[in-house]
Amino acid sequence: MKKSVTKRILRLFLVLTLLLGISALAYFILVWTNVWDKINTPDKLKQIILNLGFWGRSFFVFLQFVQVTFIPVPSPIIVIAGSLVYGPFQAGLLSLAGILLGSAVAFFLGRVFGKKLVDFIAGEDEKDRWTKFLNKNKYSFVLMMLLPCFPDDILCLVAGLTDMTWTFFMLTQLITRPIGIFCVSYLSSGEIIPYHGWGLIVWGFIILFSILIIYFSSKYSEKIEKFIKKLFKKQKTN
Predict the structure, then answer these.
(1) In the chain, how many domains are there?
(2) Structural domain contains residue 76
(3) In the list 2, 152, 182, 228, which could disulfide-bond 92, CB 3.0-4.6 Å?
(4) Is residue 205 situated within a structural domain?
């Protein structure tokens, strides 16, 4: 019994040390590059990436990684800034690399180190809320990863606390993340849908459509869960 308690304390100590180390490194880099108070808009972030020159791409991937795991910076802001610097395709690939790695690490932290760590990072209320939901609606996780209204970083952490398998989690990430990232990357550039003239009408429909999706996904969550569950079962039998 004593050995078990000692192991738990040691494991928690190692995790907190690791988190503090990563957070300190992230903070040092952000302060050193004068980014900490300048990443709230795509234009400011774009200028920072340009100033870093050769290291801009590495910093961009790193920023996408830490926003999933440790720093609450909205991913679309980073994607848009990257699109302004590197173009939509390259920014999409760089974002995908950082976000997939960050998502896998977040799931790993939740799975290996448990509730106390998730409480430490996300907060107990958020953890309890999403754990309860995902335990009942595992397959809705796919839709939640697609829609921009859900906290992806917290969901990846909490998913590690559920009975969700690594295969299901990573398959969901590989399907949903590229769709969301490249949509934001290409649409935000203004090349496909401009921010003037007829483009304003299209953007209005896109916003309305997004609101309707969020509304109906909330209202019919049980039916959506059953539908997605059937799709995955068909894939397994094929």
Answers:
(1) 1
(2) yes
(3) 182
(4) no
Residue 225 counted as domain residue: no
Q: Domain containing 179: what range?
A: 15-194
Q: What is the pLDDT of residues 97-156, one digit of tens each?
A: 999 999 999 899 888 887 887 877 777 788 888 888 888 777 778 888 887 667 788 888
